[in-house]
Amino acid sequence: MRRLCHRRLVLGVLILLPLVLAQAQHRSTQTFYKRVLLRDQAQAAGQSQVASPDPSEWSRLQSELQQAQNKLKDWPNLVRYRDANSQVPPPDSGKARVLFMGDSITDGWGRRYGNFFPGKPYINRGISGQTTPQMLIRFRPDVIALRPALVVILAGTNDIAGNTGPMTLEAIEDNLMSMAELARANGIRVVLASLLPVCDYIKPQMPRRPPEKIIALNAWMKDYAARNGLTYLDYYSAMLDDNKMLKQELTYDGLHPNDAGYEVMAPLAEKAIAAALLGPPSDGSGQVTCKGTAKTDKQILNEPCSGNTTPIRKPPKGARNEQ
């Protein structure tokens, strides 16, 4: 009886074992294929993410591409003020029109921060990010064609930063001289504005705009203005702190002025403009000819100055700081 039960047990094991092994193998196969399927799905999802970035990233890339294409088509950005220039009326004979040429510091004046001389016949022709070669190209349509009595030029910080490629101080000076010469050849008085200091209190600014280069360019502008009868506008000294950096309370990023910064700049600009309009005019050759006595905008525009004449100074050959 025991032998019979043992045989039946062995027989049952022999019959059931293949079934159990087959079922286990089937489960293992199912698990394997599930893992393969999950892996493939994960890879497909990853490839899909690479091929299709999120909408905000895609929009940013499209915007950057469009900006690059626009810059290639119009490097000096002549189109920026083309329509606005066509709407500017002839200057009022009783008021001296003043035009501000510059980069983002000019561009943002009254548009992002500060007030841009309310009630004054002043025109803003700043373009963010620009360098002196770009401004030189657009100087005729954006300055000369609008027939201002005076132009305030604030330019050079983006040249130092290399916005349009490496620039030497000598190249920047050449472009500033060319703008001044174009202005004076067209009877426009010139105010050369110093570069502002920068600071690293908020974000790093000094590595791209080394203070020693800013100081050197400002010193050149001051000397050039003195030698050529121009007016030098010193923003730099008024905005410098004890650490020889831009005062933190005057900026929102260490480079551009905030409302408080423009409040410091505005009266300095007004003072320089008044001095330039009442000072000696140009005879068109870029040389000082006399000391004026006119007291009103109308007299400045319509009456010749009188007083002691100054002989025209001819520069020595090869001189960089004389016209």
Textual characterization of the structure:
- The protein has a domain at 93-302: SGNH hydrolase (Rossmann fold), CATH 3.40.50.
- Helix content is 47%, strand content 7%.
- It is built from eleven helices and five strands.
- It has helices at 2-51, 55-73, 82-86, 104-107, 132-137, 139-142, 157-161, 169-185, 211-227, 259-278, 297-302, and strands at residues 98-102, 122-126, 150-154, 189-193, 231-233.
- It has a five-stranded parallel sheet, with helices on both faces.
- Residues 283-323 have low confidence and may be disordered.
Secondary-structure map:
Blueprint: H1 2-51, H2 55-73, H3 82-86, E1 98-102, H4 104-107, E2 122-126, H5 132-137, H6 139-142, E3 150-154, H7 157-161, H8 169-185, E4 189-193, H9 211-227, E5 231-233, H10 259-278, H11 297-302
Parallel strand pairs: 1-2, 1-3, 3-4, 4-5
